[in-house]
Amino acid sequence: MTLAEVAETPDRTAPAVVLTIAGSEATGGAGAQADLKTFQELGVFGIANLTCIVSFDPGNSWNHRFVPVDQEVIAHQLEATTAAYGAASGAPSVLDTVKIGMLGSPATIGTVASALVRSGFSNVVLDPVLICKGQEPGHALDTDQALKSQILPLATFVTPNQFEAESLSGVKITDVETLKEAAVRIHELSGAAVLAKGGVRLSGPDAVDVFYDGETLEVLSAPKVGEVAVSGAGCSLAAAVTAELAKGATPLEAARTAKSFVTAGIRNRVASGAPFDALWQGGPR
Ligand code: PXL
Fold it and tell me: What are the structural domains of the chain?
């Protein structure tokens, strides 16, 4: 349908449009694939612009094999997406909400930061992927630094896991109280709403996350489903926040919906020949 035809169809409601700028994870558990599946389940039109391709190595303890997408190709994807759905596109649903996943290199961070500044999105949800399962903490300090200095200040919502929350806040996280301290500190540094994820990593019977937006401090808690982290949980949580914000939810409502979406997805997780299960976004159905 052309834009002119869309304008002539009175009862048609265009879905909210959302973009993820993220990496591909070949087995489909994490990254852009998890984001797109989450977007579809939550009723928004998802677009993925790829920053890198990750293929786990079954012959080497399932470690990451990481290949960056060429900077020009990243810029071209962002250019095409903005021309089709950005503020000046004339599209019925303007792209106003973006999720940032794995960027992977200082060069990509620079390319994406420039595009974000140009586009002026209202909602920028940052999943600050500093570490993935199987990686050494701090394996790429230049990338961590670039993310903190160039992308974090542009974020309106940030979803760090325990390691990332420690790295961003400088607070050592051992329990819910220190998770709260870290969330408050990250809000003060960034101005963003923060959903700091304790997940299965904090001891106790519940998977506990902390929301803080400068006004409301809320502990989101659900009984743990097993003791092992599931692939795609972090990506899907941030993607669900993104979808809900695009549909008009407040940051706190978006955080609550995302938490229950991810809990249901973990309950219905998918096992494979890999040593970790994958979250199933169709779980809530
Ligand atoms: O879960 C973090 C993550 C994000 N994006 C990509 C990944 C991973 C972890 O494996 O591969 C592309």
Answer: 14-267 (3.40.1190.20)
